[in-house]
Design goal:
Strand order of the largest sheet: 11-17-16-15-14-13-12
Oligomer: single chain
Distance between the termini: 62 Å
Helix content: 40-55%
Structural class: alpha+beta
Shape: globular
Largest sheet: 7 strands, antiparallel
Length: 602
Amino acid sequence: RRISLELAAAGEVVHDKRKPAIASMASGTDMSRVEYVRHHQLEDALSQALRASVTKKEPRPLAAMASHLLAQDYSRNNDSANQALTQDASKSTQLFLQIQALQNELLLALQDEYSGSDGSLVGVEPERERAFGWDEKQLRQFYARKQASLALSAGPPLGKGEDPHSQMWFLVSKRHLHKFEYMETKELNSEYWEGHPNRCDSLADFLCIRLTLEQLRKQVDSVRLSSYRWRDVATAGDYTPITVPANYSWFLEYIDNNAMIGWMDFMSNVCVGVHVSHTLAYMGMLYAEVMTCAEWLVEPLKIPDAMSRGWIYQESTFGFLDRETVVQLATYLQEEYRREHDQKSAENYVTIIWNLSLVLLRRGHENSFTRDPEDMGGWDKYYDSRNGFFTGGKAQEYWSKIHPTASSCVKRLVETAEMPGITVVHLIESVSVRSREGLIDWLMARLGKPATDVCADAESFISRYSVGMLRAYCGADFTAEGDRDIAITASALHILETHFACKYTSEELMARVWIEGAKICYSHDVHCTLECRVNPRYACRVKNGFVIGHLHVIPNDGALRSRMSCRSPLFDDADEFAGKSVSVVLKCAPENLEQVRSITLG
């Protein structure tokens, strides 16, 4: 009963139908604030209790779980259950969904206990509310808010065997709605946004529409996906707190101006009351098959920040980027290349070229250029003994046309890169020697084609994207470590199964990718260093070594140091490396030798 009193309506005083009202409020006490804080404390404690219950595989009935919660003293800072939950990263997402399902079941059961069919609280006598000074208007507002809170709670997680495409929600401007087929609509500017600081006026001009998979594919040429790095994020809301960024209006403006259907991450679930598991189930398919409109491609200086975010990996890699954006980019690159620069503007332009080469590298340019008929030249073409690689030979001519200091800027960027590649020189050469139309075609072949158009089979697909996938898996940032598997591998797994008839798990795919990455190091006679940004709270240390991106590595002498030479059973047992030795070097934080900072293959 205490849980229901606290959780049924945050920030309001709720009465138990079997007991007298809560003790009268002391004069001057801010009861709404007290109840609000207590509500979140109990929700946090409830989550921990549920985690412990699921992790220990001892599910309790709802009533017993409620009693257990009230009997225990849970601390907000005690995350031992959470750490236990994430020991096996491959199971963490599944367990999290189980936890959320149990939590939703408990909350809804407790809320329903106090709800009458007419929206009133069952068994509550009006005199008790009036004793607190509530008039009829306040009572009606309270009942309406409580009903809205129930309606706004996220739906159930995706069930076993349920169609993963049954809850695909998109966006459309109201003035273009008549042009499209859809199943149903919902207001985008709904109660979910009440009291949220990131609510903007333009939301009222858009609707959420639900599409079937057939409708999506029939209208795919008029659909665009958003790709951007969240900024100015806030968690707020009068009815139910939602976490949304402030920088989403650019995409609404884009789909309105171009009469498109749009898809935006958070607007596909929290804004329509759909559990996030539904979105995760089909998101890999979307980014493999539907064109993407990327904010970071319009503003290339934002590319490194965007690419550091784990969820943007599949958005930027396997699908195809908006043609109009690529055309504008090609035009800009050539106009800027041909104008006069001072040292500062030259540095800015070189940085843009470098950033775009990172996108091309992620999309497999360096892994495949030797087999590409559009290859501009091999390594020796861009080398001389005085300037070295990437700024020497023919490359010196291209950089010097920008400004005499441009090649110095390139050298500084090369020194900071994990694995500098020939991609950046191919890009500046294409900008320099090709016509505008030729540059558009060259960029479209690399940015405007999906993976299924540039790869003939599963082997070529894994080879092309292996190093980029390793970089992203090890080095991308995630708020929740449990998201790493699905965010990096979902689109790749969809493509491999749907187009190349190869079904893998995330772990199996990463094993293939590690082997292919090591093969590429051998073929180019180079070392590949991958930055590791796994959250220190979720250490990758295991009993006899480390597990990084599903790769098990073991220190050669068993001792932990800030720099360790290691071996991996995966490489030892692989036929591809028979008679060879794959070197694996780990660098760890000096203050914590169990925290890996980088891994180098060679």
